[in-house]
Amino acid sequence: MVGIAAAWAVAKFEFRGKNLLISLIDLPFSVSPVISGLVFVLLFGAQGYFGPWLQAHDIKIVFALPGLILATVFVTFPFVARELIPHMQSLGSADEEAALTLGASPWRTFFTITLPNVKWSLFYGVLLCNARAMGEFGAVAVVSGKIRGETNTMPLHVEILYNEYMGPAAFAVASLLAGLALVTLVLKTLLEWHYGDAIAASRRH
Amino acid sequence: MSVAVTIETIEKRFENFPALRGVSLDIQPGELVALLGPSGSGKTTLLRLIAGLEEADRGRVLFGETDTRDLSLRERRIGFVFQQYALFKTMNVADNIAFGLRSRPRGERPGASEIGRRVKELLELVQLPGLEKRYPSQLSGGQRQRVALARALAIEPRVLLLDEPFGALDAKVRKDLRAWLRELHGRTGHTTVFVTHDQEEALELADRVAILNEGRIEQVGSADDVYDHPATPFVCEFLGEVNKLPVKVVGSQAFFGDRPVLGGLAQNQGGPASLYVRPQHLRIVDETPLALPGTVEHLRRNGPLRRAEVAVDGLKKRLDVDLASQVAPAIGERVRLRITHGNLFAAA
Lengths: 205, 348
Ligand SMILES: Nc1ncnc2c1ncn2[C@@H]1O[C@H](COP(=O)(O)OP(=O)(O)OP(=O)(O)O)[C@@H](O)[C@H]1O
Ligand SMILES: [Mg+2]
Hints:
The structure holds 2 protein chains of 2 kinds. By secondary structure, chain A is mainly alpha-helical. Chain A is built from 11 helices and no strands. Chain B has 9 helices and 20 strands. Chain B has helices at 43-51, 73-76, 93-102, 112-125, 141-153, 171-188, 199-205, 223-228, 233-238, and strands at 5-14, 17-27, 32-36, 58-63, 66-67, 78-81, 159-163, 191-196, 208-213, 216-221, 243-250, 253-256, 259-262, 271-277, 282-285, 292-302, 305-311, 319-323, 334-339, 343-346. Chain B is elongated, with a radius of gyration of 25 Å. The two termini of chain B are 46 Å apart.
């Protein structure tokens, strides 16, 4: 969702700080995941920047579920945004403007015109996102604290099991992960195939 | 249903570029006005301002007595046809046309069967019956254009705005659609503003033509007004081919060098001036007091017209002369030219 919003903002509006936003989107690509995990801990951890405030309000981020989600979002949302921006830009805003002059509300315009127009890129982005989320290790490992059954992701689980010399279990989870990765890959190929069609169709216009 | 549109001293800048510089225009209810001008003159910008897709820096647009700044896009009830049609690719023709009706607030939204009936009616109006299920990618350019128009008409607009409606079509289709649009306008009577950079199209189609140049309106008037009595050199040059002669006005006569070439001038505008003469207003004559001698250097054919290029002493550019039904002169022949009509503009 963050990705969609960012892509929309970048593609549709001209505003001050737009370039800054674009660089921010690219940031996760260029920063090592472990570092970004550390940054999160620094920001939100007990001794961190927002730490005291968070503790005062009894909000747990690091070593808890929100931390996991935050870290995952941070490393994955550029995939959605990056996929969507070029597509939205090439669409221009004529379709949206047409809808608005026909009396559609901005919400209706977004859901009936903008989203269907970008649905292939969106799926694609979400898929890449998913793939990354499944594989993400670094950032999540630092933030999560690896509390089993609570703040754990599959790659982390593999590592824990492996470290505990539970080889077979580790391999079982690892193959599950590999299976999921394969499914994602197949989906991605299918989509690319479709998506290619969609691109060809829009060129015909 | 149709409404008068009043445009009052609109200014619009993009960053530091002035796209519109004090544009005013009164449009009568039911009138068909063409905005004509070269690329970049601000036609689309003005149209988008009327539609409410762009905001003016200064000035305002009125629909009837209502200031459009007080109206939402929906309340303006604009039928806008975009330069590139902007049909919704993911919807078929029927859904495209029905979009505006379905977007109405719940209370005013017609029922499904009523919408179906309206779509059918509109498709008949634009002469595309039976194409409901097609997708935009399955239509020809001319068909897309008409679907876009049907979609705009569906909301019963108070003002119809067309941005180069025929710009992307070939010459033959353009001409057919031109006649068709004229006839459609006669039947439906919408107040219509229509943008074009094709002077022929503007002159043939519009009740009045507004000529834009660099963000200013140079002249507004009927086709005859602007063609026969251009207010500025720009209008004169933009509306058709024209020969330019530097002259000097003394009394009621214009002199090229020391030779009088045009008489009976009413205005008392002595001094240097430019005389603009269209090719059809130059005739090859035998002998008259007001005539310009020259040599035929070239002959060519331009559709139904034959044209001679005549070199005149003291003039760098050869004069274009239409040969209506006259016997064509030979190349190299000495001829005399008489100016039957011209427009004088004082030299800047
Ligand atoms: N969004 C924008 N940002 C910056 N400049 C703009 C913008 N829209 C238009 N302009 C500029 O304003 C001027 C007028 O543009 P406009 O689109 O109104 O021209 P036009 O008369 O419709 O031309 P054409 O016949 O090529 O469509 C152009 O010089 C254009 O570069
Ligand atoms: Mg334009």
